[in-house]
Specification:
With 387 residues, the chain is α+β, with helices and mostly antiparallel strands. The chain is built from ten helices and 19 strands. It has helices at 5-17, 24-32, 61-68, 102-111, 129-138, 150-163, 198-202, 259-262, 282-291, 339-352, and strands spanning 42-47, 50-55, 74-78, 95-99, 120-123, 143-147, 168-171, 184-193, 204-214, 221-228, 234-242, 268-271, 296-301, 307-312, 319-325, 328-334, 361-365, 369-374, 381-385. The strands form four sheets. A ten-stranded mixed beta sheet has the order 7-6-5-8-9-10-11-17-18-19. The longest helix has 14 residues, at 150-163.
């Protein structure tokens, strides 16, 4: 077995230089936990529009070690079932499980503000690498990790055992938490959620911290850090941008079929006051999700190559289409919710407030709603009621 301690020390140094690794205890964890154990049987590396399988068995040992200690996110499963040992040639597919870039993993773990003796609940075991880091820091009996995919959970559990950590690995829906081991001092989610489930708040001690990525668009989610209060609510702020795969039960099915037919009957049509190209930027995309919760953004092109943007509500009852119109854009809307009116209003208010960063966003989680606000103006407030 290859000794990867030099690579672990190098990884720790890189993370420290990037500002993701700040404390000696977490640096010791990075230097102690062999990341390669949590990548078996292999990973998929991007190759054009496909994914090239690289496996631990059969690869050049030096190449496998280099792969394991890259700072890149490494895809470990495609389409909910396919692993790298099952194919020998590049394949197409949609990533459904991965080993997230260590920069984000350690940055989040550092932000969790754990102390010795804390009980931690992790939502989304994935490869098990982050659970192993927490086991090293806190002790295996203080870490509970939940994974919805039975095969992913089994591989992670085996890797944790190989690394010497017999922690609490649970297969189930992480959105429900794990009440059997509650209450927890800290909850950390390594998947994105549309909103922080109140079950997590209920299973966290007063004064405890929940850290989770909120949002459903790949490039426009925020890392929320909230503290649970004595009254059973949780309050905090967005501490930065973040990108994780969506929780399985909240992953929306792609909008299929003829998009133009779905958006054929509009109730209104006008010139857009704000360019929809702003949705390619992180903060405007995050604001759009606050203004139109649950909306799906679909990009398409016409046969002539012109760019189109569609927005649909989860029930597909409301829509907005945006098409180039000379130097500006034209918006058509239909259904009970005027999606672009709401998004445009949020973006306009944000610009008038001086375009504050995502970290200016605060939030409160109650049993009935999520409340978001930015202290720059009365228009920068949103409430998402829980049905």
């Amino acid at each position: 077995m290859t000794d990867t301690s030099p690579e672990r020390r190098k990884l720790a140094a890189q993370l420290a230089q990037a500002g993701a690794l700040k404390t000696p205890a977490w640096r010791a964890a990075v230097e102690a936990v062999p990341r390669e154990l949590f990548l078996n049987p292999g990973v998929f590396l991007p190759e054009g529009a496909q994914w090239r399988p690289v496996t631990a068995v059969g690869s050049d040992p030096a190449e496998w070690v280099r792969t394991a200690y890259t700072l890149d996110t490494l895809t470990t499963q495609l389409d909910g079932h396919l692993t790298a040992d099952q194919v020998s040639e590049p394949v197409a597919g949609l990533p459904t499980s991965s080993s997230t870039t260590p920069t984000l993993v350690l940055g989040m773990i550092e932000s969790l503000d754990v102390e010795s003796g804390h009980q931690v609940l992790e939502i989304g075991t994935g490869t098990g690498y982050s659970a192993a880091l927490m086991c090293h820091r806190l002790g295996e009996d203080n870490v509970t990790t939940v994974e919805v995919d039975p095969e992913v959970a089994a591989r992670a559990d085996a890797a944790l055992e190989t690394a010497g950590y017999s922690t609490w690995t649970v297969t189930g829906d992480g959105l429900l938490g794990h009440p059997r081991r509650a209450p927890y001092d800290r909850v950390i989610a390594t998947c994105a959620v549309r909103r922080i489930p109140y079950t997590w708040v209920r299973q966290t001690k007063p004064g405890g911290i929940i850290l989770a990525t909120v949002g459903s668009w790949a490039n426009g989610a925020g890392l929320a850090k909230v503290t649970v209060n004595e009254d059973g609510e949780a309050e905090g702020r967005i501490i930065g941008p973040a990108s994780f795969m969506q929780a399985r039960s909240q992953t929306a099915a792609p909008v299929a079929g003829d998009l133009s037919a779905r958006a054929a009957y509009a109730d209104s049509e006008r010139q857009a006051k704000v360019s929809p190209l702003r949705l390619g930027e992180w903060m405007p995309a995050f604001l759009a999700q606050l203004a139109a919760p649950g909306a799906q953004l679909v990009r398409a092109t016409t046969s002539e190559g012109a760019q189109l943007l569609y927005l649909f509500t989860p029930e597909r009852e409301s829509f907005a289409t945006l098409t180039p119109d000379g130097e500006s854009w034209r918006v058509r809307q239909g259904g009970p919710v005027s999606l672009w009116d709401d998004i445009e209003g949020a973006l306009t208010a944000w610009q008038e407030a001086g375009s504050p960063e995502i970290t200016a966003t605060r939030l409160r989680v109650t049993p009935a709603s999520h409340q978001y606000w930015i202290d720059r103006g009365p228009s920068l407030r949103w409430e998402h009621r829980i049905a």
